Amino acid sequence: QDTARAKRILGRTATLEMMLVDEEHSLEAAQNGKTPPGSRLYKMRDGRSILLKKRVIYSGENIVDAAASIDTQNGGPIVSITLDAVGSRINQRITGDNIGKRMAVVYIEIRSRTKVNADDQAVTDQQGRVVRVKERIEEVITAPVIRDQLGKRFQIEGLDSVTEARDLALLLRAGSLAAPVEIIEERTVGPSLGRANIDQGFLSVIIGFVLVLVFMLLYYRAFGLFANTALGLNLVLIVAVLSMFQATLTLPGVAGIVLTVGMAVDANVLIFERIREELRNGNTPQASIHLGYDRALSTIVDANITTLIAAIVLFNFGTGPIKGFAVTLSIGILTSMFTAIFVTRGLANLMYGRKRVKSLAI
Fold first, then answer.
1. For the segment 261-270, what is each residue's pLDDT rounded down to a tens digit?
2. How far apart are CA 245 and CA 266, in angstroms?
3. Could you give the CA distance from residue 349 to residue 362 in angstroms, rounded to a whole number?
């Protein structure tokens, strides 16, 4: 909702570098221009200078997670860092060998800003586009004394506010020194557009549902009525499962439901056509119903399992919208198998079971 903060974050990338503090050489001499080889002067957040060894122990490339929180001891904002296996081994070895020494957390940020001239006006190129330049900011957030051997997780203190901690955690999770995003165009989309898309999605579900109902009823008559009852129950079950998991129904989720409406009757079509084939072979109506369901079962299970595997792959490797589509599709596959195989057979047995009938309305 805070578009200004979003733009600030989009135009920045950040990482961390861990370095040992050079306590073997004079800080005053380094400030006077006599920086020893292998060391470099940095600025701390309060403006004080600090002399660090140039060797980077590990960097943001080894960070797998970062989360902002509050220190339970002093109530200050902190960022909890989780390292990968390589960073964890390095951190364990270096901190174990340097207990009692200081290790600095260097914050490095790449910002993209508009280039301005002496009159503080934006500079443009030959095509009239605003020229943007990148600047590198380096500062030492904190340089604590190593009290004990560290491992996979550690905390960063010395932040000014909770908002800064959240921004830092977000930037660190985004990746180590990736190319910053430059905003070319900015648009504000109101909630009415999203509401309209959702309404159109529900309308497509209703239209598809009604068309399938009419087709099944006209083509398969009484058995089409069984399939329509199962289809309605299938939609109820999908909504019930989504409600049970407190899921938010998005537009990709609606698309998954639309696809499920068509797939739900696919199993019934296989069963009903198999029943028709058995009737043409001269079997009795009761035997045709029994053989139709039994012989179509393996085909139905195989087809739905392959689709379910594809939905699982989409969920594992997809992003947010794709995951929503995969979830509703997976739920729809499972519920449609239940309604198509068990519900329609129960209705068929209720109408034709233990009755002497000469023909089937199919």
1. 877 888 888 8
2. 27
3. 14
Residue 255 · residue 323 · CB < 8 Å: no
Rounded distance, CA 321 to CA 300, Å? Answer: 28
- The SS3 of residue 354 is coil
Is residue 252 within 8 Å of residue 321, measured between CB atoms?
Answer: yes
- Please check whether residue 156 is in contact with residue 106, taking contact to mean a CB–CB distance below 8 angstroms: no
Delimiting residues of CATH 1.20.1640.10 domain(s) in the chain: 194-352
CATH architecture of the domain covering 194-352:
Up-down Bundle (1.20)
Integer angstrom CA distances of residue 204 from 199, 200, 210, 211: 9, 6, 10, 11
* Topology (CATH) of 3-174: Gyrase A; domain 2 (3.30.1360)
Q: Are 345 and 293 in contact (CB under 8 A)?
A: yes
- Whole-angstrom distance, CA of residue 90 vs CA of residue 82: 13
Model confidence pTM above 0.90: no
Written as six digits, the tokens of 59 are: 């960097």
Residue pLDDT, tens place only, 8-30: 555 566 778 889 999 888 888 88
Q: What is the DSSP letter of 42?
A: E
Dist. CA 110–CA 165, nearest whole Å: 17
Contacts of 207 (CB under 8 A, 6+ apart): none
First to last CA, the chain: 56
Q: What CA–CA distance (Å, rounded) separates 53 from 24?
A: 10
- The tens digit of pLDDT for each residue in 31-55 reads 888 888 889 999 988 888 999 999 9
Q: Which residues pair with 111 in a beta bridge?
A: 12, 135
DSSP assignments along 119-169, one per residue: TS-B-B-TTSPBPEEEEEEEEEEE--B--S---SEEEE---S-HHHHHHHH
